[in-house]
Amino acid sequence: MLRAYVDQADLPPGWLRVLADERLRPALSRMHAEPGRPWGLQELARTAAMSRTSFAERFRTVAGIPPLAYLNRWRMLLAQRALRDGDVRVGSLAFDLGYASESAFSTAFKREVGESPLRYRQRLRQEMATG
Q1: Long-range contacts of 96-105 (CB under 8 A, 24+ apart)
Q2: Is the distance from CB of 90 to CB of 82 less than 8 angstroms?
Q3: Coil, strand, or helix at residue 55?
Q4: Residue 29: which H helix or E strand, with range?
Q5: With 80 as the cut, is the pLDDT of residue 14 above it?
Q6: Full-prediction pTM beyond 0.90?
Q7: Which of 32, 58, 77, 85 is most buried when burial is the number of CB atoms within 10 A of its CB?
């Protein structure tokens, strides 16, 4: 049913449209399966059997953002889930998501989410305890 919808709908740029794109799906699947891998544009393009330029342009058109920006957002969504649902250490999480240091991860998290990873976790736990 979803495939029929995707085939008939004029989807706006975004995740669902990338997922429906036969050429981009292999790269998207690899990013999702191995978010901590140090992906480069060339390797992702090769996964999609495209040139670097063609891949980057197509991904940006279909997803609405460049591929490495998409990967960073995906990593931050995974980080938010891990911080919300578990007791994972921030340093371990940073390493698992492909960051060279806890500091680099914390900076990226704060830029994307608006608060530090530890503050994010504390706030969510307070909200769950009082809500």
Answers
A1: 96/36, 97/35, 97/36, 98/35, 98/36, 98/37, 98/38, 98/39, 105/79
A2: no
A3: helix
A4: helix 25-33
A5: no
A6: no
A7: 58
